[in-house]
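On clarity, I found the account of how folds are encoded harder to follow than it need be. An entry of this sort, consisting of the sequence and the corresponding backbone structure tokens, reads as follows:
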Amino acid sequence: MGAASLTPHEISPEEARDILALQRLAWTYCHAIDRRDYALVRSLYWDDAQDDHGPMFQGGPDAYVAWLPQMMATWSITAHTIHNMVFLLDGDHAEGELVTTAYHRTLDGRREVIGHGRYLDQYRRRDGVWRFWRRALAEDWLEDREVAEPAPASGLDAGRPGADDPLYRRLPLFAAQRRG
């Protein structure tokens, strides 16, 4: 390691390409989790990757994807967002701190749990493709509260996890990419 730097510097086209690829990887993870496309989640990790969600889960990508349906089944809807991303690149290795908010609403619609934290990621590029290699979640704070008032019906398509989300009916390119 050695070329990585957080200080301002001229960004080469190659560095910009790599940063954009890592950002897309992070955004795709959020999309795949919220749409519960577990096959897509799995495709984002190298086979020798490790994911550390603390006491909830620690292990490889196949075990992580096997664990997700039971954990996600407790939520009627989720919304994972990334607010800030900082990456350090060193050849085919990169590291990233991704500030995240993960919104969860219970199945009965009465409670919401909102996790605020950071993904502390290590990435590997193999054959020109970036994927997660090591992933850890750091929790900065957690909100657990009653839903004050359910939102009134707006007449808009209701978002929902899974393949029944309006995304797949309205956007055929996304529907064709749905993996699971």
Strands lie at 45-52, 58-59, 75-90, 93-106, 111-126, 129-146. The longest helix spans residues 13-34.
